[in-house]
Every structure is written in C-alpha cells, then in structure tokens.
Design brief:
The complex is a heterodimer of chains A (about 260) and B (about 325). Chain A has about 260 residues and is α/β, with parallel strands linked by helices. Chain A has seven helices and 13 strands. Chain A has helices at about 35-55, 70-75, 95-105, 125-135, 190-195, 205, 235-250, and strands at about 1-5, 10, 35, 55-60, 80-85, 110-115, 135-150, 150-155, 165-170, 170-175, 200, 215-220, 230. In chain A, the strands form two sheets. In chain A, strands 9-8-7-10-6-1-4-5-11 form a nine-stranded mixed β-sheet, sandwiched between helices. In chain A, strand 8 and strand 9 form a beta hairpin. In chain A, helix 3 crosses helix 4. Chain A is globular, with a radius of gyration of 22 Å. By secondary structure, chain B is an alpha/beta fold. Chain B has two domains: about 5-170, HUPs (Rossmann fold); about 195-315, Rossmann fold. Chain B has a seven-stranded parallel β-sheet, sandwiched between helices. A five-stranded parallel β-sheet of chain B has the order 15-14-16-17-18. In chain B, strands 8-9-10 form a three-stranded antiparallel β-sheet, with no helix packed on it. The relative contact order of chain B is 0.11. Classes of the chains: A alpha/beta (about 260), B alpha/beta (about 325). The interface between A and B is large, with 82 and 96 residues. Bound molecules: flavin-adenine dinucleotide (FAD).
C-alpha cells in the first residue's frame, strides 16, 4: 500500500508560550520544534499500516524551517521510506492543503494519516481541507482503525465521550486521536538507516500550486485572562475541609 | 450577499442549546438572521429565537453525517445568500465545516469564544496553544465561516413566533461513511458535560476501588459529575469517557474539584474556564495550585471524605 503521513514542524503541547511584544505573533524560536503530539500518532499509524499491508510510507511537510533532523529521526528512523519537504511559507491553511494535496497526488498515496489537530494554532482545519482538495473520504479523530482491501472500519471519538464505528472506502484522509496507538522511539539502527533515505525538497511551482493566501488574518495575541489569585486553606484535613465548604457556600456561592 | 446563517443542531428533533446561543449571538451582529436545519426537526419554532427564515434540508443525517452536512450546508448557504455562517464549536467544526470552507474558498475561524462584525468583516476571538494564548482571526472572505464554542454566550426566551421554512434540495457529492454503531458513554449519575459541579481524580487514586470510593463517593454527596485525568483513564481507574482535557471532554462548571491531579497543560485545557477551581494535592508545588481558587495541601484520602462530611453537615 502507498501510505502518506503529513506532519507539522511545531512546538509540542508542553512548549512555553511567548507572545511577541506587540502581540502580532509568537516568539518561540528557542522552543523545541519537533513533530507535535498528535502527528506522532499519525506517524505510528502509518508504520502500523505498512507493517500490516506492506508497501511504503512517504512523509509530507510544509515548512521553511530546517526540517531535516525532525523528519529523519521522527519518521524515517521509524521505518518511513521517503520525505517530501515543501519549502513554502504558507500561513493560509487552504494553501497548505493544496500544496500537500498536490504532493500526495504526485506520490500516488492511497491513504494519508494526519494528527487530529495542531498544537499551536489548533484550528482543526487542515485535514478536512486536504480531504476536500483531494476529493477523498475523511474520518476525523480516529481511535481505532482496520483496513481491509479498499475499505476500512474506524472508530471515531466525537463530542461528549460519544464514539461511532464507521465504514468507508479508500482513498481517505484519517486524522489520528490520542489512544489510537502507542508512539515509539526510534532505535539506533533506524536512525543510522534514516540518514540515507531520500528527502525531496520541492516548491509550490514544482507542484503547480499558486499560493494566494489572505483568507484570514491573525493577530492581537495576548495571554489568557488571568484568574484571580487563589488561596491555600491551612489546617488539619477536617478543619480545612470545613473551611473550604464554608467558603464555597458563603464566598464563592457555588454550593 | 448579506445575512447571518446559523447551523442549528438538534438531536432527534430537539434543538440543542447551541442553536439558541448562536441565534442569540447572530441577532447582535446586525443584518437578517437565517437558520439552517439538517433533517427532521420543528424548524419553524426557530422564528421565536430570532430566525427570520429557516432553510431546511431533507434527508437522513442520523446522529452525524459529515459528508451530507457539507453538501447540504453548501446548498443552504447558496439558497440563503448569507455572507456569514455560524456553527457550533463541536465535532462538526472539526470535520464538515473546514471541508465546506475549502470547497468555497472561504476563510474560517474555529471555536471562537466570541465573534463580532468589525468594518463589515467577521472577527473571532479564539485560543492558541490550547488556551495558553488568545488572539483574533479576521475573516476576509465572503462567505465567512466561524464556529463558536458551546456555552460562550447567553440564550434567549422564545417569543413563540414562527418562521417561514424554505425546503432546500441538495445533491450528495462528498464521499461519505456508513455508521455501523454509536457508542454512548455510560452516564450513570450526572452528565459530566453539563454538570454544574465536577469532581475529578487522578493517577494518585491508584485503583478503581479507591476511585469509586473516594471520588464517586464525594460526587454523589455533591450531586456532581465525575471527571478524571488521562493518567487515571489510561490506568483503567476511571472510564475513558470521563477524561477531562485536550483529548477528552472540555467542561466549564461552576465548581471543579481536582483531587490528586498535577495540573498538566493538557488537563488544564479541558477545565481552565471553570468558575471556581479547588485543588487538593499533597505537593504544594503542583501546577494545579496556580489555577486554583482554593487549595488544600493534603492527602486526598483524608480531605475528600472530610469534605463529604462537611457538606452533609450543611444539610
Ligand atoms: C498529546 C497529549 C494529550 C494529553 N491529553 C490529556 C487530557 O486530555 N487530559 C489529561 O488529564 N491529560 C492529558 N495528557 C497527559 C498529561 O500530560 C498528564 O500526564 C496527566 O494529566 C497527568 O495526570 P495526573 O495529574 O493524574 O498524574 P500526575 O501528573 O502523575 O500527578 C499526580 C498528582 O497527584 C498528587 N498526589 C499523589 N498522591 C496524592 C494524595 N494521596 N493526595 C493528593 N494528591 C496526591 C501528586 O502530587 C501529583 O501532583 C495528555 C498528554 C499528551 C502528550
């Protein structure tokens, strides 16, 4: 099977957030930029699929940062076969989707895995847009998956703890949720082998995509509204509990 | 093109609270308010909440049908001529809505806590980095699409007015999925999602027996919903549907009690907007205390039963 996986080079969920002085952007160049949490599930699912169905895994990313070490260690060292790095500074999500779709089509992938959401902007937009540009089936927030020929059965995590088991046809974009698999670390042999695996650098022009952008503009970044300072209630368990309950009833008025 | 179209979600014909919230919000933005209804529901009643016209697509949408939602909403948007589409910030906003945005070449602002019209453009305020920063998205396209987080705004009383219902035909063109089974969480007791009080336990409970005794015990005294950290659900101490956080449920109750939960960023993402947060933790340096309204540095196995006793003493 010809398997694709899309990853973003971005700070992970534990990164410390620093806002640029004028609130126009984020100043996080010194933060670890790697393959963020949900994309790691996508990488692992691609490898599991390769394990079960044979074939190859191609990883796609759109970035102007030096992606080399993250892609080699985070994907190719885990048994990925090839990388396509699209070196464009595309901030509009639909542009990113168009770039990825063109590269995916060129490689002839039958299934593409993505993380359910990015850990920075967190807009949840890329994967559905990618499915639309490709004209493929979309399954979002998948926690269980089995592929059989050109059909698949997936369990998706919806709102309020509700899950649905769904059946659909490949080709498909499958977004990966926490719980789908356990991510692995690469071993030494994998890291060594990854050094010689092909990494193709392409541009929008190579892919025949024109970046038009500007559908949205983002700014006015600020820290979240601060919660009023809290209070530690001292004393033995029984006394502290009584005081807490009194405060919850008389001061906070929530009991 | 003008007007604001609101996707009014319903479950088996009963409109969800988000329908009311979004229609109320749309009424503050200026211009006519239209409602979009997918499938069988008492569409005309939305007139009482401010919809001047309701566009209804016939068909079977079940609990949720992403592909059909994209196709039907596309037809409704065209029929209504609306320049703005508002939808609830639920699964649909992470699945069907961006797909529709891509089809229309439209910009979208996801899961806003508020939206406004500024110089004729839709501006949404939303979170970055799972709530560790906020910012604004200005949507430059027509139509402009935004999803709005549930519970972000007030609801209105229905005036009882009925709206004209226009039935919109649509064509299925998006590859879809067949739903084989819907698995609903076991909600014995209070529903976590809508609970006014939530008590949540973490890894430190160590066993299901302890979790049931201490956390569920206090929950029944407080008539509270039960939540858990991922460390607790991963260990099988609590059910997965009870996980609060970035990969679980997002809650905003009046009172959230975190017992033996360290306060990891991913947990905070699911409860940081609770009105009052109580932290119980043996480690005075646990990050949860930075977000707590009230904190008790102590052993949850002593403090939780003592709280239950103190609450019972009130009654
Ligand atoms: C991609 C990703 C997504 C994630 N999503 C989520 C999510 O949705 N929800 C979530 O919760 N986590 C999530 N996590 C995991 C998160 O990072 C933390 O690991 C998890 O929240 C920790 O759970 P905990 O607080 O129970 O355990 P710990 O961090 O181990 O904390 C246990 C706490 O209990 C205290 N304690 C121990 N004994 C007692 C006692 N007797 N009395 C009182 N206090 C005691 C300790 O001092 C400590 O603070 C996610 C992680 C990743 C990478």
């Amino acid at each position: 099977m010809n398997i694709g996986v899309c990853v973003k080079i971005a700070p992970d969920t534990n990164a410390r957030v620093k806002i640029a002085g004028d609130g126009s952007g984020f100043d996080m160049a010194d933060q670890v930029h790697g393959i963020p949490d949900y994309d790691e599930y996508a990488v692992e699912e691609a490898m599991k699929t390769k394990g079960a169905h044979k074939g190859s895994v191609t990883v796609f990313t759109v970035t102007t940062q030096k992606a080399d070490k993250y892609i080699r260690k985070g994907v190719l060292a885990l048994d990925g076969d090839k990388a396509v790095v699209i070196g464009e500074d595309a901030s509009d999500t639909l542009d990113v989707a168009r770039l990825l779709a063109a590269a995916i089509q060129k490689e002839g992938c039958e299934v593409v895995f993505t993380g359910k959401v990015s850990t920075d902007g967190g807009s949840h937009q890329l994967s559905p847009m990618l499915a639309e540009v490709l004209g493929w089936t979309l399954v979002s927030k998948v926690v269980e998956l089995s592929i059989d020929g050109d059909t698949f059965t997936a369990t998706r995590a919806m709102d309020a703890g509700i899950k649905q088991v769904v059946k659909g046809k490949l080709p498909a974009v499958i977004t990966c949720e926490d719980g789908l698999n356990k991510v692995r670390l690469p071993n030494m042999r994998g890291i060594m082998k990854a050094k010689r695996k092909p990494m193709e650098m392409v541009s929008a022009a190579d892919l025949g995509v024109s970046i038009d952008g500007g559908r949205t503009a983002e700014g006015s970044f600020a820290p979240p509204p601060k919660r009023p300072a809290g209070r530690i209630i001292e004393g033995e368990a029984a006394d502290a509990a009584r005081e807490l309950v009194r405060l919850l009833r008389d001061e906070a008025k929530v009991l | 093109m003008s007007g604001i179209l609101v996707l009014c979600d319903h479950a088996g014909g009963a409109f969800k609270p988000t329908a009311n919230e979004l229609l109320t919000l749309a009424g503050t933005l200026g211009g006519p308010v239209f409602a979009a209804v997918l499938g069988d529901a008492p569409a005309a009643t939305l007139g009482g909440l401010g919809a001047s016209k309701v566009f209804q697509a016939a068909g079977s949408f079940g609990d949720y049908a992403g592909a059909a939602t994209v196709d039907a909403l596309e037809a409704i948007l065209a029929a209504s001529g609306a320049s703005v589409l508002l939808a609830p910030g639920t699964y649909v906003a992470h699945d069907a809505l961006p797909r529709l945005a891509a089809r229309l070449g439209a910009g979208m602002a996801t899961d806003c806590s508020s939206v406004a019209m500024v110089d004729g453009k839709l501006v949404g305020t939303r979170d970055w980095f799972a709530g560790r920063a906020q910012g604004q998205v200005t949507v430059n396209t027509t139509p402009a699409i935004a999803s709005v987080a549930p519970n972000s705004g007030p609801k209105s009383e229905s005036t009882g007015a009925e709206a004209e219902v226009v039935s919109v035909s649509w064509e299925a063109k998006t590859p879809g999925l067949e739903v084989l089974e819907t698995l609903a969480p076991s909600t014995d007791g209070v529903d976590l999602n809508t609970a006014d009080v939530v008590i949540a336990g973490g890894r430190s409970l160590k066993s299901k027996e302890n979790f049931d005794g201490v956390i569920r015990g206090l929950a029944s005294t407080l008539r509270a919903g039960v939540g858990a950290s991922r460390a607790a659900t991963d260990a099988g101490i609590a059910d997965h549907s009870e996980q609060v956080g970035q990969t679980g449920v997002t809650v905003a109750p009046s009172l959230y009690i975190a017992a033996g939960i360290s306060g990891a960023i991913q947990h905070l993402a699911g409860m940081r907007t609770s009105k009052v947060i109580v932290a119980i933790n043996t480690d005075s340096g646990a990050p949860i205390f930075e977000h707590a309204t009230y904190g008790i540095v102590g052993d949850l196995f002593e403090v939780c039963p003592a709280i239950a006793e103190a609450v019972q003493a009130l009654d």
